[in-house]
Amino acid sequence: MLLSLPGAERAARQFVAGETLAQAVEVVRALQVKGMVATLDHLGENVTSLEQARAARDEYLEVLDEIVRYKLRATISVKLSQLGMDLSESECRKNLRGLVERACEIGDFVEVDMEGSTYTEKTLEIITDLHRDHAAVGAVIQAYLYRSEDDVKRLIRHGVSVRLCKGAYNEPSSLAFPNKADVDANYLRLMHMLLESRLYHRIATHDPRMIAETQRAADELGLMKNQFEFQMLHGVNRPLQEQLVRDGYRLRVYVPFGRAWFPYFMRRLAERPANMWFALRGIVGSVR
Ligand code: FDA
Prior knowledge:
single chain; alpha/beta; TIM Barrel; binds dihydroflavine-adenine dinucleotide
């Protein structure tokens, strides 16, 4: 049986807002009606020329313009490999700075996604350097990495806002906890450190246990519900997203869009067998 790309595309639509910025704006506006906020990810990673990297920066500048135009309650999420990190660190820094400066002007915020472990150190260096001039930039920490506890301490010291996630890339056991139970335990340890810092942080997970423990920790620390936020991916566990809003928490939905959806879609399939079955049904269903 042949697999069809249109079938895969249809399956990817569960997780991706669409190929165009206009489609993503519609999704964000619909989320706002439900009391949710968003972060917009223009899909694309590992560009192969500096022109492509500059074009990616310009596309994100357009996203920021649309945020202003439609008064969207949305940040942007960017990947440094998309801004030219593999080609020229200085150009990548320049591209990111351009986005953060524009975000500052309009009162917005840039969340720098974390990619595979070969990028971790440079990404954190670039963010902490830029953060000295502009507070409107935040980092992502992956709980599966052994190094993350030290990185959290370092980011708190610099006053950088952190999105905490479990981690979505294939990492060797020399760098990352191979067992899920250890990743979860580290997630909770790092979550406590972040909340105790009383900086504004972003708890990104669909895991009901991580969420319940975060709520408990915030209560114990006397944090208000607007002193941190939960984040989830577009299309994942919508009932839980709605429940958090009903309970008065801030919920930011990560809304990816664009034509380069394939690697993002593959990461979503890899992290959950149920997603794989859902996708296969869509793909096989499209074979005539
Ligand atoms: P995990 O995958 O362990 O799942 C735990 C439980 O959550 C499941 O047992 C189930 O109950 C529930 N659940 C999970 N998926 C579900 C689904 N599809 N439907 C229903 N329930 C589900 N990674 C990275 O490396 N760099 C990054 O920059 C980011 N950025 C990012 C932003 C945001 C907003 C989110 C939510 C996630 C990321 N990630 C990421 C991805 C992250 O690292 C991780 O791969 C996924 O979030 C899956 O991990 P969970 O914490 O959801 O738990």
